[in-house]
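Could someone model iron/sulfur cluster with this protein?
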Amino acid sequence: MPKLEIEHSKCQGCGLCVCICASEGLELIDFKSTLREQNCTCCGLCESVCPRNAISCQLNVVLAERSALP
Ligand code: SF4
Ligand code: SF4
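Reply:
Sure, complex below.
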């Protein structure tokens, strides 16, 4: 199951990830991006826009590892 992880120590609360998500998969709580896991499809869009590299989707890592196999 794909899983999105947010490092709250890196998040500066800019809200870019919340705005870009079409699935309402994120919300800002106390100026920190917080996952609404039931809505997230792990599309990776929020990961690509975060200026602090605070978001990572494990699905992207798995695909990269598989593509490196012979
Ligand atoms: S885009 Fe990054 S820094 Fe901005 S609110 Fe989202 S996780 Fe935090
Ligand atoms: S990975 Fe995609 S669906 Fe999940 S929170 Fe980020 S933008 Fe929304």
